[in-house]
Amino acid sequence: MQYQEAMEYLQNLTKFGMNFGLGRETELLRRLEDPHRRIRVIHVGGTNGKGSTLAMLAAVLQNAGYRVGTFTSPHLHSYTERYRINGSQIEPEQVARLITILRPHLEDMVRDGFEHPTEFEVSTAMAFLYFWEQDVDFLVLEVGLGGAIDSTNVVTPLLSIITNVAMDHMDYLGHTLVEIARVKAGIIKPGVPVVTAAANPEVLEVIESACQEKGCPLVRVGTGVSWQPSDHSLRGQSFDYSGINRQLHNLWLPLMGGHQLINAATALVALEMLEKHRHVVLNEQTLRDGLAAVVWPARLELIGENPPVLIDGAHNYDGACSLRRALDEYFADSSVIMVMGMLGDKERAKVVAELAPRARHVIITRPNSPRAGNWEQMADEARRYVTHVETVEDISIAVKAGLAVARKGDLVCITGSLYMVADARETVLRLNNHQ
Predict the structure, then answer these.
(1) Do residues 343 and 372 make contact, with C-beta atoms less than 8 angstroms apart?
(2) What are the phi and psi torsion angles at 94 (to 5°)?
(3) Residue-by-residue DSSP string for 14-54
(4) How far apart are CA 108 and CA 123, in angstroms?
(5) Contacts from 429-432 at CB under 8 Å and sequence distance 24+?
(6) What domains can be seen in the chain, in order of their start residue?
(7) CB within 8 A of 108, min separation 6: which ones?
(8) Does the pLDDT of residue 435 top 70, yes or no?
């Protein structure tokens, strides 16, 4: 197969929808000789902050000289972003080769009476096969959706991380924090250490209970592990960290937002746990340089100057609250033009109520996804808070409309589902001659 043909084949698998359970993934991996059992995995779950925490872990481990694979989803601009080794994306030819290897196994499974694996299950199997072939020292693995029911959950990791638990994907995970927490806690495996930054007492009770039941050491960020912000700018922020065995002062993180300090503390204590169990050898300079090298686009990412454009994939209410805090902290004197687009299965009314009052002009656009639903409904919500609200279906045109109404001193903020934010980011980069 050529790359384009492989991508069309993979895209066609979306017809199998979201079909949860680990049976198909386990069977497919068995036919591939169980590559997931031959890799040292750090499993990262939670509602928000998974990707940022993963990026920080990977940056430090790479800086320490390890060969680090990362598997993330969804991607921003190219499918190849999902599979990286030391920051470098998989080559398109490799994707085509791996799909060519997997296809006969998928066809054999159906002939043998199994359900056809879903697109994400095939993507996950590809990840395990690729990173095993590439002989990575570690695979930092992001949960796709939930935890217990996610196809990445076939692994027995060195360490499980649950960043936090908030309301998201309620149609699939449950309608209360406790229900969602139970699904997220499904990545907790017998005897495997767990790190969490979850703070809600009900959520913590679920996580603590799962750890107790399975004999897992649990470290809580915020209890015994703490951080203290010291300074911030539009380039990033510095902070102090007090961990299990390390006290680190004046660490630099090139990401904006107070929530990123929680993610950084989570990553640092996870690294301390890996040290404690003798999986890695790290020193203070490695930790400092690794954190300072973190790159994680479309998360409070500032592009251009005239006007400045802030891009943030705040795709649920919890994320919207973090974005609102950042707008008030970093851009208190700026008038905001907001370009928004969210999927239909999100808490859109709550997100609009959090963000729209901070804007003088709101443009609602349609995410490029079949799950966009009644996308224009967000405009009706926004009109409750803002006088100037318009709908522009095409994302690129919506971005240009936002830039056109910006005056001197204004900030254009683009936010919502990553599907929408990715398309918007391409337009912004093109207009700023970054591409």
Answers:
(1) yes
(2) -70, -40
(3) GGG-----SHHHHHHHHHTT-GGGGS-EEEEE-SSSHHHHH
(4) 18
(5) 429/303, 431/304, 431/399, 431/400, 431/403, 432/303, 432/304
(6) 3-292 (3.40.1190.10), 301-431 (3.90.190.20)
(7) 31
(8) no
Report which of 409, 417, 412 is spatially closest to residue 401, judged by C-alpha positions. Answer: 412
**Residue 241 DSSP SS3:** strand
C-alpha 81/C-alpha 298 separation (Å) is 13
Q: What is the DSSP string of 265-319?
A: HHHHHHHHHHHHTTS----HHHHHHHHHT---TTSSEEE-SSS-EEEE---SHHH
Burial 231-264 (b: 16+ CB within 10 A, else e): ebeeebbbbebebeebebeebbbebbbebbbbbb
Read off the pTM: 0.95
| Token pair listed for 339 | 């370009």
- Looking at every residue in the chain, the average pLDDT score rounds to 95
Written as six digits, the tokens of 27 are 């069977």
Smallest CA-to-CA distance from 232 within 251, 210, 208, 212 is with 251
Please classify residue 328 by burial: count the beta carbons closer than 10 Å to its beta carbon, then call 0-12 exposed, 13-18 middle and 19+ buried: exposed
- Token pair for 250: 């004046």
Which residue in the block uniquely carries the two structure tokens 């692994």? 155
CA distances from 273 to 39, 54, 60, 394 (A): 18, 15, 14, 46
Strands of 109-221, DSSP E = 138-142, 159-162, 194-196, 218-220
Residue bearing tokens 């207009």: 431
Q: Which residue has the tokens 């900030």?
A: 411
Please write the tens of the pLDDT for every residue from 249-308: 999 999 999 999 999 999 999 999 999 999 999 999 999 999 999 999 999 999 998 899
Which SS3 state, helix, strand or coil, does residue 363 take? strand
pLDDT for the residue 434: 54
Based on the number of CB atoms within 10 Å of its own CB, is 76 exposed (0-12), middle (13-18) or buried (19 or more)? middle
Report residue 143 as tokens.
Answer: 């949960």
- Regarding predicted confidence, which is higher, 171 or 193? 193
Q: Which amino acid, one-letter code, is at 427?
A: T
Query: Sign (positive/negative) of CA torsion 299, 305, 306, 307?
Result: positive
Structure tokens at 85: 């080794």
3-12 and 119-133 helices cross at what angle (nearest 10)? 140
Residue 432: phi and psi, rounded to 5, are: -95, 10
Contact 60, 137 (CB under 8 A): no
Tell me the pLDDT band of 347, cut-offs 50, 70 and 90: confident
Chain segment 252-261, per-residue pLDDT in tens: 999 999 999 9
